[in-house]
Amino acid sequence: MNAAAVTVLVVEDEPQMRKFLRATLEAHEYKMVGAETGQQALSEITLRLPDLILLDLGLPDVDGVEIVERLREWSDVPVLVVSARDREKEKVRALDAGADDYLTKPFGAGELLARIRVALRHAVQKKAGASEPIIKIDGLELDLAKRLVTVAGRDVHLTPTEYKLLTVLVRSGGNVVTHRHLLKEVWGTAFAQHTHYLRVFMAQLRHKLESDPARPRYLLTEPGVGYRIRSPHGG
Amino acid sequence: MRRARAKLAMEFVWSVLVVGLATGLCELLYQRFELADLIMVYLLGVVIASTRFSLYPSIATALVSVLAFDFFFLPPRYSLAIFDPKSFVTFGVMLFVAITTSGVTERARRHADEAMRAEGEARNERLRSLLLSSVSHDLRTPLAAIMGAASTMLDDEATLEDATRHDLTQTIYEESARLHRLLTNLLYMTRLESRSVELKKEWQPIEEVIGAALTRLEPRLRDRQVVTRLAEPVMSAPFDGVLIEQVLINLIENALRYTPANAPIEISAFAKENAVMIEVADRGPGIPAGEEEKIFEQFYRASRKKADGGIGLGLTISSAILRAHGGRIWVERREGGGAAFRFELPREGAGPPMVEGDRLPEVANYKERSDKA
User: Fold this and answer.
1) Which of A113, A201, B83, B198 is the most buried (most CB within 10 A)?
2) How large is the average pLDDT for residues B244-267?
3) Taking CB atoms and an 8 Å limit, are A199 and B358 in contact across chains?
4) Does B370 touch chain A (CB under 8 A)?
5) Distance between CA atoms of B43 and B62, rounded to whole angstroms?
6) Nearest of A162, A112, A115, A121 to residue A142 by alpha carbon
7) Does residue A97 contact residue A65 with C-beta atoms inside 8 Å?
8) pLDDT of residue B120 exceeding 60
């Protein structure tokens, strides 16, 4: 572990989970700080200013979503929420409150590290204020300056709405984007509930970009939550 | 509530019809029979009505019967003489018959209902204990493997070879994944059965949920040939994306588990008139004849002996999910060998409005249709 190690605050009340996370994180050169309750988490955040927070939503004392809300009043630190498979509503609430992504319990070390890398990279880009001008994801290339999209070297013509949809996903750098957030960004607040339209445009976009739209390589669906683009860096 | 009210209204209509029938019959008998006999015909109507209807329609039958008898047959005919004490007596008797008969039938019906409920509860109780014993057995199998592997690693830490250690770790990982799959299905199952799970039906393309299931299974499908065939490009239906994804995962996992590694898995979707049909087909050994329906029943274990760590819960929960959607799931034999699992999702209603070109319709005129969709 070196002095400039990235600090991850793990908010989790299960000691066995903390043990697993500490072993995994420290094996990959992250510095881990643990908190068992929401109260403890809030004080650790102000005290240690972690680079990333891994937040279990099933805390005994405070609603995890509330922690995200309070945190977002003053900090942009990336937050990954952890919750169970059948709790889509809870995940969406946390994401809409400002969490960056989620992990579904149980998860493996590979998935955890990939999510952390994506979230950290995205945070750095956001701070820098600009994303890379050309984004490449496994054969898909997006030139943001020239507004050009190519798949395997072939030009793809997108409508303005499809292009907007794609850029919102690409700008999130592989983090999940909720239905609500996408609808707001692309069509405006009035459409925040009209998920069906989003699905139709998403399908159109898939048919233009994917070689097998039923087995997408770029535009991934998170049922009940939203969409994500496959991480540009193979996370 | 609304249905109960409609049923009551129907009973009132029927009670008038019964009286009409009695009146018609009396008209035929009028010439040759006494008035007292005619009353018997009406009384018969009241008895019939009150064995079938609830209290108020039964009373109505009695009342209308007296009025009809009075009007049509009691001299002077075609006039009402309701203050005639004889009418009062007739009405009294009919009312008495109507109330007691309908009371007796009501009680009998209640007893029957209670008996049925008790039987249902006993059946549920039996199912629950069966589920419990079945599940604890299936949980214990992977747990035993995990515990065994972990204890070997702890006890023989110094002497284990790297390859063995790796194998044991692999076992622990795979068996816990199996535990997780079992628990996920179990959770959906109990929640669907207790009706605490709320179906979140939304119109969405079939293609998308197939893609989601394939993405989630990606690590396990890496070395498999998967073919997808969709009849229409953007075929939609209203369904709960999370639950239907689970159905697809269960079917694909089944195919993975029961078929040789080099056999392709084919996923297709077809549009039908009022439904979409999705098929997951494999080239495995197929389902033994006569077991095509059993495999969807609770606690069915495939007769092919294989340590697969499932109680067929995956198919049972899939079937429950489809039922909750008003659809169905079944299996067919494939020509040339293998099994084809198929399920149908109804496409009821007009569906959401189409998107034209690149723009969305105005929110204002879209609103009222979207609420129905």
Assistant:
1) A201
2) 91
3) no
4) yes
5) 8
6) A162
7) yes
8) yes
- Which candidate in B146, B175, B207, B246 is best for mutational testing of the A interface (most A CBs within 10 A)? B207
Residues in chain A: 235
Which of chain A's residues have a Cβ under 8 Å away from the Cβ of B234?
200, 203-204, 207
CA A27 distance to own-chain centroid = 23
Kindly state the percentage of chain A with pLDDT values over 70. 96
pLDDT tens-place string over residues A97-122: 999 999 998 898 999 999 999 999 99
> pLDDT tens for residues B319-356?
989 998 999 999 999 988 899 999 999 988 767 766 66
For residue A30, the surrounding DSSP H or E stretch is strand A30-35
Structure tokens at B356: 């034209």
Q: What is the ipTM of this complex?
A: 0.87
Cα dist. A4→A7, A118, A121 in Å?
A: 9, 19, 16
Retrieve residue B45's tokens.
């109507």
At residue A116, the pLDDT reads 96
Q: By CA distance, what is A204's nearest residue in B? A: B234
In the beta sheet, which residues pair with residue A137?
Answer: A140
Which residues are CB-contacts of B80 (< 8 A; sequence separation ≥ 6)? B67, B70, B71
Q: Is the peptide bond before A106 cis (omega within 30 degrees of 0)?
A: yes
Q: Is A215 in contact with B228 (Cβ distance < 8 A)?
A: yes
Answer whether A114's CB lies under 8 Å from A235's CB. Answer: yes
A16 touches chain B (CB under 8 A): no
Least confident residue range of A86-90, A134-138, B128-132, B233-237: B128-132
* Residue A171 near chain B (CB below 8 Å): no
Backbone dihedral region for residue B78 (phi beyond 0: left; psi -120 to 50: alpha; all else: beta): left
List the end-to-end C-alpha distance of chain B, in Å, as a whole number. 24
Q: How far does A8 lie from chain B, in Å, by closest CA? A: 25
Minimum Cα–Cα distance from B360: chain A residue: A197
Partners of residue A56 on adjacent β-strands: A82
Residue partners of B325: CB distance under 8 A and separation at least 6: B199, B201, B239, B240, B243, B244, B345, B346
Q: What is the pLDDT of residues A50-85, one digit of tens each?
A: 999 999 998 888 889 999 999 999 999 999 999 876
Q: Is B204 on the interface with A (CB under 8 A)?
A: yes
* Nearest to A223, CA basis, from B211, B220, B370: B211
- Taking the CA of residue B180 and the nearest CA in chain A, the distance in Å comes to 8
pLDDT at res. B364: 37
